[in-house]
Amino acid sequence: MTKREEQSLEIVETKYFNLGALKLESGAAVNDVVIAYETYGKLNADASNAVYIAHAFSGDAHAAGYRKGDSKPGWWDDMIGPGKAFDTNKYFIICSNVLGGCAGSTGPASINPKTQKPYALDFPVITIGDMVNAQKKLVEFLGIKKLLSAAGGSMGGMQVLQWASAYPDDICSAIPISTAMKHSPQQIAFDEVARQAIMADPKWNNGNYYETGDAPDDGLSIARMIGHITYMSDKSMEEKFSRNRRLTQEGKSYFDVESYLHYKGGSFTKRFDANSYLYITRAMDYFDVSDIKFVKAAKKIDVKFLVISFASDWLYPSYQSEATVKLLKLKGYDTTYIEIKSTYGHDAFLLEFDDETKLIKHFLAKVYDDRKNAPAK
Amino acid sequence: MSEDTKRAPLEFRTIASIIEKESSVLDLGCGTGDLLYYLTKTKQINGQGIEIDEEAIYKCVEKGLTVFHTDIESGIDSYPDAGFNYIVMYNSLQQIRQVDRVIEESFRLAERIIIGFPNFAYFTARKDLLLGNSPVTKNLPYQWYDTPNLRFLSIKDFEKFCGGKNYKISDRFFFSENKEIKLFPNLFAQTAVFVISKR
């Protein structure tokens, strides 16, 4: 057993919360919304140690530890656990699958109670705001009025910014990582190519493929391959693959980078729903908190920010994080910013856990102490 | 005063004596945050820093400080008008490209600026020059080929600069080897701390 495994959590379990009907930002509503979630650590007596972890585009509620029978831990296990950045000996950690997702929460693949069939494209348009509103209900259900922090990378970072924007009174701090206040045309363009790849697959069939059992795996796989290109950097690809080639058993020769993308694309189709891909990327593309609604200017401000970006991330370049920081500073928010040197590109937020730990551990400890020592209101 | 702040250099103690309790301070080029931390502990300031070095940022966060990882020239635009009581530039002035713009911008943010820098006209530096070598002193420890310093100024230079810009020098302190220097500071002081404001 390695040292890091010793620090992993005990067996964890995904739970499900039915929040009832959720009114959406569009004005539509979804009934019987179920949110899949996991929690780690213990909520303290005054419910002041809760941290919400928001997952990235293709993530899920299983952020840390092993579920029964798992061979791999959750997606941010390097960061969450006893003694880690999000120390489960000290904090109560919550992670849930986003609304519109396909890992236990209500999304386009869920059964529409009205028709008793999967929603498919009858699922209403959802936003990052709707996702966070569902998370807010989950957090309240768990008995928490005010979060100590919300943290997450990429689309998780967008949710964090949305928490700060929509519920500034209900969080003490926010840790948006490798993210942006809004997508640039380049980011929207990559999403659109991915969506077109899915919709161009005849098996997509206008979103109606659940009952045939024949999903648009080719389209979804290509979408994911495009995604993976944008998650790496020129340098990390060189280091990982160079121009190495390998012969397959059939005598075909593939570059390592090709095999990698094929493998990643193929395995993605086993765990992700094509319609969820369409809905969630739309939600990201429409997200925009760059205007003043971000901040209630005249109010006493007490949300503390830690903004992190990575130097080789060209999908969410540092200038986007700097724009967030500048807006926050101009509005008077207490904001710490760091651009971490890394060659991993956008994937860095999942991989550079040593540097992230150094920052988040101390930042959270300070927020925790400040909250404990603050005069009661 | 806690153990870690007790043995602070005289410059730190002097700066702390200038700053009012619980005021807000922006430290331009805060390094590993030692001064900010000292002022937080001794004067309960609401402090923030700007720093370009990544490793220094980790040290600042470890101390619980709020810090912005960027260069001074572009970071300084990100703060609201009159957002601070003091701007501090301690050992960073000599590394700034657009000194006069940064000082003008600083006056947009605060009425008082506290500036500390090493004196290039310190007598051993003059001796080095006299012997035909670029000066290397305790407070200017770099060789000509590896120095981060862009500006080499003396106490006299800075006073002339303030005169020319019509800035008011409300206080000035001179130091050598952790002692205050009163006599011929431009010759015998290794470092200087000025408090300036607009007339």
Task: Tell me what the structure shows.
The complex is a heterodimer of chains A (377) and B (199). Chain A is α/β, with parallel strands linked by helices. Chain A folds into 2 domains: 3-183 and 289-373, Rossmann fold (3-Layer(aba) Sandwich); 187-284, Rna Polymerase Sigma Factor, Chain: A. In chain A, 35% of the residues lie in helices and 18% in strands. Chain A has 11 helices and 14 strands. Chain A has helices at residues 3-6, 128-141, 155-166, 185-199, 217-231, 234-240, 256-269, 274-286, 318-330, 348-351, 353-373; strands at 15-23, 29-40, 50-54, 80-81, 86-87, 92-96, 111-112, 117-118, 149-153, 173-177, 245-247, 253-255, 304-310, 334-340. In chain A, the strands form 4 sheets. Chain A has an 8-stranded mixed sheet with strand order 1-2-6-3-9-10-13-14, sandwiched between helices. In chain A, strands 4-5 form a two-stranded parallel ribbon. Chain A has a two-stranded antiparallel sheet with strand order 7-8. In chain A, helix 9 (318-330) links the parallel strand 13 and strand 14. In chain A, helix 4 runs antiparallel to helix 5 (217-231). Chain B is α/β, with parallel strands linked by helices and 199 residues long. Chain B has one domain (3-119, 153-198): Rossmann fold (3-Layer(aba) Sandwich), CATH 3.40.50.150. Chain B has helices at 3-6, 10-18, 34-43, 54-62, 72-75, 99-109, 123-130, 155-165, 185-188, and strands at residues 24-28, 46-51, 66-69, 86-90, 112-118, 167-176, 179-180, 191-198. Chain B has an 8-stranded mixed sheet with strand order 3-2-1-4-5-8-6-7, with helices on both faces. The longest helix of chain B has 11 residues, at 99-109. Chain B is globular, with a radius of gyration of 16 Å.
